Amino acid sequence: MYKLLVGAFIIFNIGLFLGWLFARSYNKSRFREFELEAKAKADVIKQEADKILQESKNKAKELIKEAEEKKERVQQKEQDADRKIRILNEKEKRLDQLIAEKKQKLELLTDKLSKVVSMTKEEAKKELLERHKEQIEAELAQMSRKSIQIAREKAEDLANYMLATAVTRYAGDFAGERLINTIVLPSDEHKGRIIGKEGRNIKTLEQVLGVDIIIDETPGVIVVSNFNLYRRAIATEVIKRLVEDGRIHPASIEEMHEKVTKEFEKNIYEEGEKVVVELGLYPMHEELIKLLGRLKFRASYGQNALAHSLEVARLAKSLAAEMGGNEKLAMRAGLLHDIGKALTQDFDGNHVELGAELCRKYNEDPVVINAIYAHHGHEEPTCVESAAVCAADVISAARPGARREVLESFTKRVREIENIALSYDGVMQAYAIKAGRELRVFIDAQKVSDDELVLLTHKIAKEIEDKVQYPGEIKVNAIRQTQAIDYAK
Fold it and tell me: Which of 103, 125, 177, 296 has the greatest number of CB atoms lying within 10 Å of its CB?
């Protein structure tokens, strides 16, 4: 019995323990379910909370943006209002100004009307003309500008045609003047007579004649040297006559010099008179005629001054005819444009001032005086005739063969012109061509731009003009070129 009770008790305890284990296991399972369920609910709540928070943030952003837009609209409206107020103020000021101007014009009109009421027919006509004068002058100015523009477009072609026509009508001789005269003697014995005892005769000759007499080893020849053609011509003639006469001593030298000088003075007047008659320019003052004859014994760069003046006169006549000017007046101005050169060896001053003063003294036409000043740039030409003389002077002096220079001085001048151009930065090469009448300058395109090229060319021309002495004019031709080279392969 006891064993049965113990066994039942053990069984009961085992059952109780198993029940406890089952209940515990069941409770754990239920707890996990509750835990999972709680977590799921918590996640749902969290998601809903995040969603509500994001919606709140978006709503806040929208509200902030809407507030900023409202603020901008308010500011824009304030600016528009300020601008309208400013415009209204300006309009008000302008309105006041217009009212004042209208009032002033009304007062002026009232005054004019009051004057018109009392005006005569002539006064009213004059007032009307004055009123339209400004408009007419403006229209005339516009027409003048248009005419000037058309004239400029055609001027170059017309000028080239006129120059070509004038040059073809007249062709002068080439320069042949020299600085020495050579006298051929009958024999070398005459050299001794010319030298005289202890050089007495040659000293008297040089002193009286004002020349240098060169006697060297050349057989039967002596040389008379002097830059003054007139003095040299007289000396040559005196020596020739002394040699023919055979009597050479100081007294005979002075006597022969006086005789030859008188003959030359007479011949000079006859030469000038011949020119004036040939050109049909009588009447002319005797002193001017005499000085024209004396130009025969004056030269510039080897070009005879009288021959040059005749050439300029004829060219000026042709140019004036082409331009509708006074041919005879142009020819007279051309003949007298260098008259001052006949006095430069005896008086101080340049030939322009001397010539103008001389022509003014003998009542020559103002056109002649203007041409004398204008042909060297002392004045601007005031008429067609003066302009024709200026052009003719340049043509006569610059044409090939018109003037001759000593090779050494020519080479020096050409070298000086080239060196002036080469002294400027950006100049690669410079060549004087056309007998020194043109300077061709090659420019480095990397250093000098197109705009700077014009200024550089002007600077070179200006420096040549200031530092170099030359006849006529020198053309400065600057060339700037950019080259690009590539190869197709």
Answer: 296
From the candidate CATH numbers 3.30.300.20, 3.40.50.300, 3.40.1180.10, 3.40.50.1820, the one assigned to the domain spanning 409-480 = 3.30.300.20
Q: In a 10 Å sphere around its CB, with 0-12 CB exposed, 13-18 middle and 19+ buried, how is residue 319 labelled?
A: buried
Residue pair 438/475 in contact by the 8 Å Cβ criterion: yes
Burial class of residue 261 (count of CB atoms within 10 Å of its CB; 0-12, 13-18, 19+): middle
Return the structure tokens found at 26: 């069941």
DSSP state of 295: G
Which two structure tokens, joined as six digits, stand for 132? 């339209």
- Cα 289 from Cα 231, distance rounded (Å): 19
CA angle 458, 462, 463 (to 5 degrees): 120
As given in the structure block, the two tokens for residue 74 are: 């308010």
Task: Give the pLDDT confidence score for residue 178 in this predicted structure.
Answer: 53
Q: Backbone dihedral region of 486: left (phi > 0), alpha (psi from -120 to 50 degrees) or beta?
A: beta
Give the tokens for residue 21: 């284990």
The whole-number pLDDT of residue 50 equals 80
**Amino acid of residue 206:** E
The span from the CA of 116 to the CA of 100, in Å, is: 24
CA 325, 327, 332, 333 torsion-angle sign = positive
pLDDT in tens, 69-107: 877 887 787 787 778 778 877 877 877 787 777 777 767
R_g of the chain, CA atoms, integer Å:
55
Residue stretches of the chain with pLDDT short of 50 = 168, 171-177, 405-407
The pLDDT tens digits of the residues spanning 11-57 come to: 777 877 777 777 777 767 777 777 777 777 778 888 887 888 888 78
280-307 core/surface letters (b: 16 or more CB in 10 A; e: else): ebeebeeebbbbbbbbbbbbbbbbbbbb
Ranges of each domain in the chain: 37-106, 180-264, 280-398, 409-480
Question: Cα–Cα distance between 375 and 385 in angstroms, integer?
Answer: 11
- Which has the closest alpha carbon to 293: 266, 258, 317, 314? 266
Q: 280-398 is classed in which CATH architecture?
A: Orthogonal Bundle (1.10)
With a CB cutoff of 8 Å and minimum separation 6, the contacts of 473 are 394, 398, 437
CATH class of 180-264: alpha beta
Rounded CA-CA distance 429/436 in Å is: 16
| Residue whose pair of structure tokens reads 């101080």 in the numeric block | 348
